[in-house]
Write a structure and sequence with these properties.
Blueprint: H1 3-27, H2 40-62, H3 68-72, H4 75-100, H5 104-126, H6 132-152, H7 157-176, H8 180-205, H9 215-222, H10 224-239, H11 244-250, H12 253-264, H13 272-319, H14 342-359
Helix pairs in contact: 1-10, 1-12, 2-4, 2-8, 2-10, 4-7, 4-8, 5-6, 5-7, 5-12, 5-13, 6-13, 13-14
Length: 371
């Protein structure tokens, strides 16, 4: 099999894994109503407890434990994990409540606008500089929120809370620097004791549905761990096979599925002003996608040029050629024999690294959890 065929297989498998992850997250609104009569807080507590069990089994099978000891020696990272666990608890709990209370479309809106909130966080907290298209997308997104506020008669607080909580979660995860499974294990470890304590207290009061609503209901509550872990495993398999720009576009699969379910399955109303607000959100996301694709193409072009220059310089070194001062030979051209000073090689290497850094696109996957 040629290297190109191998790469094509990797790309195809990465796309399949990625689509599976986001499609799973997009269809999860069908699962939470199955857990009634359990309330949102009880479902959330079971999700925390069983997620740790599921992720722990995966880590045990993979024998991936070496990250725990170094993490325990870093209080700052532990603080970031505690913050991540707190905000994802808010995100999960509100999403479950929103779906089971008939707000699937607004919950989907939260994940549509999450990339815009992440960009705003980058500017305000990380001092990142935006390109003009990104500024335009953020502006259109702000107008969309205003239009939707008029449509709902109030701020779409469910969508905004989901978007801001997940953006905060993503920022905390970036500071922690753990892979997906390890990060989820650490976060659910923080959640585990409070969640377990709540479930024990609920059972002592006689308000728990785990034992009182039948074995099928108990099995569904226990499957919350599987529902949380499986798409994350697929996402991890996709992330190592695909560029971030591709994953960034796949992320819109989940809220698109959720939006479609809200209208077709849950029969939520969509008056004209809400359609107008969603249209503006989609316009903002189209601007972001276009800008990301354009930047990625330019980056690949500049990196290819840098690689060609490096290859040409390597050819001159092998041939013992001295290029004129300040001139890097074009690809495929080898001047007459001589010696290449080391300073010329160093200058070209530094130049090419700078091109590579400047050309790297600002690709943020955004939401990797559809609730």
């Amino acid at each position: 099999m040629t290297p190109q065929n191998q790469q094509d297989r990797v790309d195809r498998s990465g796309l399949l894994y990625g689509f599976a992850a986001y499609a799973f997250w997009g269809l999860v609104p069908l699962f939470w109503p199955l857990l009634e009569p359990a309330g949102a807080v009880e479902i959330l507590a079971h999700r925390m407890v069983w997620s740790l069990a599921a992720v722990g089994l995966v880590l045990l099978a993979l024998r991936r434990w070496s990250w725990i000891r170094p993490l325990l020696r870093e209080p700052r990272r532990l603080g970031m994990i505690a913050l991540a666990a707190t905000v994802i608890s808010i995100n999960w709990g509100l999403y479950i409540w929103g779906v089971n209370s008939g707000h699937v479309v607004e919950a989907a809106l939260g994940y549509f606008i999450n990339p815009l909130v992440s960009i705003a966080f980058g500017v305000l907290l990380l001092r990142e500089r935006l390109r003009p298209a990104q500024w335009a997308a953020v502006g259109v997104g702000a107008v969309a929120v205003a239009v939707l506020a008029v449509g709902y008669g109030k701020l779409p607080w469910i969508a905004l809370t989901l978007a801001f909580s997940f953006a905060t979660y993503s920022l905390a995860k970036k500071r922690v620097g753990l892979d997906g499974l390890e990060s989820l294990a650490a976060e659910t470890a923080v959640q585990f004791l409070p969640a377990l304590g709540f479930l024990i207290w609920l059972g002592a009061r006689g308000d728990s549905t785990f034992a009182s609503a039948g074995a099928g209901h108990a099995a569904l509550l226990a499957s919350c761990g599987f529902v949380t872990a499986l798409p994350l495993i697929c996402f991890g398999a996709s992330a190592v096979r695909l560029p971030l720009s591709t994953i960034g576009m796949l992320q819109y699969v989940a809220p698109t599925f959720q939006f479609a379910l809200g209208i077709t399955v849950f029969h939520e109303t969509m008056p004209p002003e809400r359609w107008a607000g969603f249209a503006l959100v989609w316009l903002a996301l189209a601007l972001l996608t276009w800008d990301a694709l354009r930047t990625a193409r330019r980056a690949r072009r500049e990196l290819a040029d840098a690689a060609a220059r490096a290859a040409a310089l390597s050819a001159t070194v092998e041939a013992g050629v001295v290029p004129e001062a300040g001139v890097v030979p074009e690809a495929g051209l080898v001047p007459e024999a001589g010696l290449v000073p080391e300073t010329v090689i160093a200058d070209v290497a530094v130049s090419d690294v700078a091109v590579s850094d400047a050309a790297a696109p600002d690709a943020r996957p955004g939401s990797i959890s559809g609730g």
